[in-house]
Design a protein that fits this description.
Number of helices: 13
Radius of gyration: 21 Å
Helix content: over 70%
Shape: globular
Low-confidence stretches: 252-260
Order of helices and strands: HHHHHHHHHHHHH
């Protein structure tokens, strides 16, 4: 009985390509029903994001545009996650789950019905993983270092905290390939060239202070002088995650070692992130 259920689940939910179409239709219907019943959540304040304020001024009067934009972005995110798995073989088995699992996760709460700059930044973060993972297969890592840094810089235009991924991606570059001065310089050049273009636009608009304000906010990430104000279930979740990480680190890794080197490195990289 268990064998039959396992085989059926693997056939119809893991390996089936048709399930992606079914899930897409269900997710669109689910999101539309939530939109009709709950409407859009209150818009978060992004006081220091001039680019997003310009976009929000267009879609704020038409909530349906924000809903459609968030739905489109979530599908783009799911496609990117699925394409990462297909192109680089992170999961060795044939599976459609990397496509429909993000769709499900981003559709279980009304907060994801509104289009936000965080979703746009997430698209650029996932996009930057393509050149990052490509460094494992090709020799010229400086070319891909420039690409993923430029993509992260473009994502930071919408969410400045995207820049925090730059050192993490450089550490991943060291794990996937040999980092050198050339690749490090290329990554810095990718950041500089994007921000130079943005800075030129602010200079043209006579608003240099608007360019520097997001970087001031980047320095204020969290007040470590006070403990997080979590309730008991939240602390339980944090403790569970920490416990699972410790178990993973201390458990026998023979099975992981037998896997392909790229898969092992991606697992370690995901754990680090």
């Amino acid at each position: 009985m268990n064998t039959h259920l396992t085989r059926s689940f693997r056939t119809y939910f893991v390996e089936s390509r048709f399930i992606s179409i079914v899930f897409s239709v269900i997710i669109v219907g689910l999101r539309f029903l939530m939109y009709l019943k709950k409407g859009l959540p209150d818009a978060p304040e992004y006081a220091f994001n001039d680019v997003w304020r310009l976009i929000d001024s267009v879609i704020s009067d038409l909530p349906i545009l924000s809903f459609l934009g968030s739905t489109l972005l979530i599908f783009i995110i799911s496609v990117l996650v699925s394409e990462l798995n297909l192109r680089f073989g992170v999961i060795r088995l044939r599976t459609s789950m990397p496509f429909y699992i993000p769709l499900l996760l981003f559709s279980v709460h009304p907060v994801f019905l509104r289009m936000t700059p965080d979703l746009i930044a997430l698209v650029f973060v996932l996009w930057s993983l393509f050149p990052l993972f490509a460094t494992y297969q090709f020799q010229r890592s400086h070319k891909y270092a420039f690409q993923f840094s430029a993509l992260l810089a473009m994502g930071s235009i919408f969410q400045i905290y995207t820049l925090l991924f730059v050192p993490i991606w450089l550490i991943a570059l060291k794990a996937l390939d040999e980092i050198n001065f050339r690749s490090f310089f290329a990554s810095m050049f990718g950041l500089i060239i994007v921000f130079w273009i943005v800075f030129s636009m602010y200079v043209f608009g006579d608003n240099i202070a608007g360019f520097t304000e997001p970087f001031k906010q980047l320095a204020v990430i969290y007040d470590f002088r006070s403990a997080p104000d979590f309730n008991v279930p939240q602390w339980g979740f944090v403790g569970t995650v920490i416990l699972l990480v410790i178990i993973f680190l201390t458990a026998d890794t023979k099975q992981i070692v037998r896997e392909r080197s790229f898969t092992k490195k991606v697992l370690v990289f995901n754990l680090f992130v």
